[in-house]
């Protein structure tokens, strides 16, 4: 039986993944998050349909004329603004259709990310003509963030693949999950992958239990995330190839004496792309939510025989999202060299990389809070 998170987890600012690169500069996430936007838009129509069919606006507005949304893992924009406005447009249309004589509801949007996130940039760039009241909520979404029954729609895009911490055993020489010479479970032993899977499942369970307190009965969670077909090896995917290249570059730098191999062994990326079977299993073991709809897609449908990946732009996107995590462990000059060499390495295997952008490596899930429990 699932256990609802108690209020003590309001103190949830423990160390976790490092936020994306802030600011509005040329190397910022704000200017290098277009690929994520394209990927999220692939699932837009199906998510809109699920909200239209399943969100009971009459019930939600029976006690208040305000609809409250939260984007968990919002980063610094601009993608979060588009996503929130799209959901608001869908809800407004449903209200106009089903409640034509009722006043248009007001909307409040909570933008959540880690305390170190660049909320200043987020709110400097927020659309001045927005149709909602906005607020920031810093903290880990693996714990409580909001009062009981205060949210109607929760959205999270490309955030839940980040783990709350590095899985146990990866940095322990005496553990069967010791991940020597690697920075991820791609191409690693099965014990390493299993450690990642266990940590991810625990995190998702905590996420759902926290939301069960915060979302009203009938409320909805929309999740868009990295995925992988059940049974496929992560090393077959473009990201798996990239993580192996990163590890290879760091080991080359270690051979030159600029860092030690022990430093490489002690670094593991806290990110896991769960296959649908694992996601569904966690939801089924949680008594507070039911699966409304789910689907898998290709996050890069724009790649064709005539359109190819710009490796410079691809690495800029990766760097904007992950540089802080590397900077936390390695000196800045080491990180700079790694990303500079990464572009060269990935260009050498660009054909393999592009062929690895497979269908079903992005998943979307829409969950609904049960009316009982």
TrEMBL record:
InterPro entries: MeTrfase_7, MeTrfase_capping, SAM-dependent_MTases_sf
Keywords: Magnesium, Metal-binding, Methyltransferase, Transferase
Origin: domain of life: Eukaryota
GO molecular function terms attached to this record: metal ion binding; methyltransferase activity
GO biological process terms, semicolon-separated: methylation
Designated name of the protein: Probable S-adenosylmethionine-dependent methyltransferase At5g37970
Species of provenance: Populus euphratica
